[in-house]
Amino acid sequence: MRFDIISVLPDLLQSPFAHSILQRAQKKGIAEIHVHNLREYADNKHKSVDDYPYGGGSGMVMQIAPFAACIEKLQAERQYDEIIYMTPDGVTLNQEIANGLSSAENIMILCGHYKGIDQRIRDIYVTKEMSIGDYVLSGGELPAAILVDAVIRLIPGVLSDETSALTDSFQDGLLDAPIYTRPVDWKGHKVPEILLSGHEAKIMAWRHEQQLKRTKERRPDLLND
Ligand code: ADE
């Protein structure tokens, strides 16, 4: 699976993909992440990619020409399943959407800055608009990194123990059960007896019960859908 991310701050996107599971997925050849510097597609000597909004108002707007040049260059090289614009007014990312995207072959992600991007880029090129939550960040780079992380870990073969993605919170529509490791007793705070019993069926039943309890307490909305 290949991601092409278009950004004015490509350096911001180096570190998030250079560690742990995402790094391993790239080394195994399962995922490729390419970051493109939008300024290289600017058609002026100052490499500026934004301008004042028509109609007035505060903030600058990212112009159509640099995005169009970069997007069309990439589209000439391969077919994209989705061209996603990260924006707080998009559809909120969830596990179901991440699952759906994990079977795509090529995904392009556009990162906005300032006030946002010219609406015509959205109208002409974008196939999905995604938000990572109801709050506003300075740009689309961190949201793009979150989306890429959520999707890559779901591609078969990325996690060494495949069941660990299947038992993630949300994967079955419920939050995860509490987890423990050594020591059994930390200053009087003990691991629940049942987890030490070795009785697999009882442990599974306990975990499911805990998942329901947690979901009911913390995210009752997940049970009502
Ligand atoms: N860009 C700025 N804020 C964002 C958000 N919450 N989700 C996606 N992209 C964004």
TrEMBL record:
Residues that coordinate or bind S-adenosyl-L-methionine: 112, 132-137
**Source organism's superkingdom?**
Bacteria
The Gene Ontology CC terms held by the record are: cytosol
Record's family? Belongs to the RNA methyltransferase TrmD family.
- Identify the coding gene: trmD
Q: Which reaction does it catalyse?
A: guanosine(37) in tRNA + S-adenosyl-L-methionine = N(1)-methylguanosine(37) in tRNA + S-adenosyl-L-homocysteine + H(+)
Q: What does this protein do?
A: Specifically methylates guanosine-37 in various tRNAs.
Protein name, as recorded: tRNA (guanine-N(1)-)-methyltransferase
An example Gene Ontology biological process: tRNA N1-guanine methylation
Question: Which species is this record about?
Answer: Sphingobacterium humi
CDD domains (alphabetical)? TrmD-like (cd18080)
* Major subcellular site: cytoplasm
